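Q: I'm writing a short methods note and want an example of a predicted protein-small molecule complex. Could you take the sequence and the SMILES for adenosine-5'-triphosphate and return the bound structure as tokens? Please keep the output block clean; save any remarks for afterwards.
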Amino acid sequence: MQSFVKIEHFSCGYPGHFVLDDVSFGIQKGDFVGIIGPNGSGKTTLFKGISAELSALTGVVTLEGKNIHKMSLRQRAQNLAIVTQTIEAGAMTVEEYVLMGRMPYRKQFQFFENENDFAIAEKYMKLTGVDRLRNKYMNALSGGEQQLAGIARALAQEPQLLLLDEPTSHLDITHQVQILNLIRRLSHDLKLTILMIIHDLNLAGEYCDQLIMMQKGGVRKTGVPMDVLNYQDIEAVYDTVVITRTNPVSGKPVVFLISEDVMSTKKLS
Ligand SMILES: Nc1ncnc2c1ncn2[C@@H]1O[C@H](COP(=O)(O)OP(=O)(O)OP(=O)(O)O)[C@@H](O)[C@H]1O
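A: Understood, no commentary inside the block.
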């Protein structure tokens, strides 16, 4: 089957610092894919490469066969949306912020949003549950509310591919589960293709259809969570002893950490 998003022999980095080296993988339409890997392994750099914020040193990134790096800014924004960890929207209401997602669709000399833009913003504010916050200022929202507003703005862009950089960091378990359930619904019900950076291996295993495990600027392993989250690969990549089991209800992999004290008494090392 042809991949909807294809990354082929892709390398990119920063001046004087080469980070991603010959990365290749494909994603099917409507898949919810988690990117895992230790600090500094290149996850954010991969996002910058996919979104063309960083130029390709080698290889290509295509979406439905079209090279993302060759798209105009406007075309790119109609195809791809990013939600970053920190949202700096300051003194702007939630509704104004979500409406910004419609900018890539403005026609020449169209200075204001039209009825269709308001209807689309309304639809996604309702879907994410931030419609009740529409008149609140973005800088007066909690972290979880800001993330939901960020997702609503990204959805208002009506992209084909959504990139989420750790949408659940800083959130309590109620909000983690709320956001991940929403993201799963978006991929499965709306057939939106989603790539999400996530540090929590248990959440990644429970919610994602596929995982990409990064190590030192390359891809170590890709596949369904049960194949990727095994103790051998995790220990090799994170240099940490873990135990893996299966969640008795969901059948998904679960990763346990062991403290130094316990490890020395149980003689696991
Ligand atoms: N703007 C930059 N200029 C130079 N080097 C950078 C820049 N941003 C990141 N790097 C380097 O690139 C490498 C990969 O960083 P990246 O942010 O992609 O990792 P990451 O996997 O997202 O890490 P984390 O989990 O800590 O967010 C690191 O060695 C980092 O120091």
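A: Remarks, as requested: The longest strand covers residues 17-27. The pocket of adenosine-5'-triphosphate is lined by residues 14, 17, 19, 37, 39-45 (CB under 6 Å).
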